Amino acid sequence: MSNFAKIVKTTPITDDYDISNTVLGLGINGKVLECKEKKSGLKRALKVLHDSVKARREVELHWRASGCKHIVEVIDVYENAYGGKTCLLVVMECMDGGELFQRIQDNRDGAFTERQAAEIMHSICVAVRHLHDTNIAHRDIKPENLLYSSMEPNAVLKLTDFGFAKETLSPADTLQTPCYTPYYVAPEVLGPEKYDKSCDIWSLGVVMYILLCGFPPFYSNHGLAISPGMKKRIRLGQYDFPDPEWSSVSSEAKNLIRGMLSVDPAKRMTIQQVSNVMSSPWVRQYTQVPQTPLYTNTLLREAGDAWPDVQDEMTRSLATMRVDYDQVQVQIKALEQSNNSLLNKRRNKVGA
Predict the structure, then answer these.
(1) pLDDT of 189
(2) pLDDT for 235-288, tens place per residue?
(3) Would you call 49 helix, strand, or coil by DSSP?
(4) Which residues contact 16 (CB under 8 A, 6 or more apart)?
(5) 8-state DSSP, 6
(6) 181-203: per-residue pLDDT in tens?
(7) By three-state DSSP, how is residue 50 classified?
(8) From residue 205, how far is each of 77, 189, 311 by CA, in Å?
(9) Considering only the top CATH level, what class is 100-331?
(10) Candidate ranges 24-33, 47-56, 169-178, 323-332; pick with highest mean pLDDT
(11) Which of 25, 35, 159, 196 is 20 to 30 A off residue 149, Cα-Cα?
(12) Are 204 and 318 in contact (CB under 8 A)?
């Protein structure tokens, strides 16, 4: 029996839950509705997915990741027919505290500090380390997928939406995978484990950068969601730490961002390095980070209606990275350099 078959229920979900028409959000692969558990009366979130191989992968990986304090918990999974089609109904804990940056934007209790940013990064790193230790790459770490459990001051920040998550191979499996074919070569593709996991670290670096100043490291200069120039800056790692927003931020924080935003995945920090007290005390010992006031919540409030554009930029940037990592970036050998016998025959015929 597959792991998916073990976790899914085929009884009607309405036996256990009352489902409302209230839409809580939209995930990559389906919408999220509010529902209520009949036995306990607790409010839950229900994600509705059309049954497919991709949807089953999402559900199984999210189920496997549950149990970590900083990952939204999957409570039940049902396979029911809806509108004549088979659907997967995923019941999760309800996150009533809103998105990460929306909460910072709405905070009116003084300036957001570097120590608060470090505590947030610690929470996210706990989630990512749990995933990477269990050979799962999330591949869509962005503000909209970082939610608070409630509006209370002690609310827990959690990672959600496994629509792009992927199981990563072991190093042994990676070594057995050929990285090139005779006429197509991709030396930069070193294996799915390195690339998928490093995509998460890049995302962590972007989130941390925004946490510390209120704007992203890479952005479009032309008002487009993502421009060719922005793509080039991402690939070249062209960003800076401008004043005055960064003048008081600690050098430890800046160095950590540099390690996560390395353009070479082989040199980019791993989640173990990011969360290790020796290599990165800023995350692990967040209670000792200085309480330096930041510009973050002021700039986020000033951004106002422009913030969705920033989120869109990050979504598109992540999509670009996933394409690069999922699909081999082939470099086609120049025809004049090829020793292909069929091409040689054609050259000879043309030259005759």
Answers:
(1) 40
(2) 778 889 999 999 999 999 999 999 999 988 888 999 999 988 777 899 999 999
(3) strand
(4) 37, 38, 39, 76
(5) H
(6) 323 323 334 455 566 788 899 99
(7) strand
(8) 33, 21, 15
(9) mainly alpha
(10) 47-56
(11) 196
(12) no
DSSP conformation letters of 297-322: HHHHHHHGGGHHHHHHHHHHHHHHHH
Answer yes or no: are the C-beta atoms of 74 and 62 closer than 8 Å.
yes
**Angstrom distance (rounded) from CA 236 to CA 234:** 5
DSSP state of 134: T
**Number of residues written out for the chain:** 352
Instruction: Give the separation between CA 334 and CA 311, rounded to whole angstroms.
Output: 39
CA 54 to chain centre: 17
What is the bridge-based pairing of β-strands 8-9 and 74-82? parallel
List, as one string, the DSSP characters of 281-299.
HHHHTGGGS---B-SHHHH
Answer yes or no: are the C-beta atoms of 94 and 32 closer than 8 Å.
no
The single residue listed with the structure tokens 């919540």 is 297
Question: Can you name the residues that pair with 148 across neighbouring β-strands?
Answer: 157
User: From the candidates 140, 161, 196, 200, which is the catalytic residue?
Assistant: 140
Q: Burial letters for 9-30: b for 16+ Cβ neighbours within 10 Å, e otherwise? A: eeeebeebbebeeeebbebebb
C-alpha span between 167 and 197 (Å, rounded): 10
In the structure encoding, which two tokens stand for residue 159, read together? 């990672």
Q: What burial class does residue 335 get, using C-beta atoms within 10 Å of its C-beta: 0-12 exposed, 13-18 middle, 19+ buried?
A: exposed
| 140 catalytically annotated | yes
Query: In the chain, what are the domain boundaries?
Result: 14-93, 100-331
Annotation-wise, does 54 bind a ligand?
Answer: no
CA distance from start to end of the chain: 65
Find tokens 């330096």 and name the residue: 292
Decide yes or no: CATH 3.30.1540.10 for domain 14-93.
no
> Is the CB of residue 36 less than 8 Å from the CB of residue 52?
no
Count of other CB atoms within 10 angstroms of residue 57:
17
C-alpha–C-alpha distance, residues 238 and 91, integer Å: 42
Structure tokens at 347: 């050259």
SS3 5: helix
Q: How far apart are CA 215 and CA 300, in angstroms?
A: 8
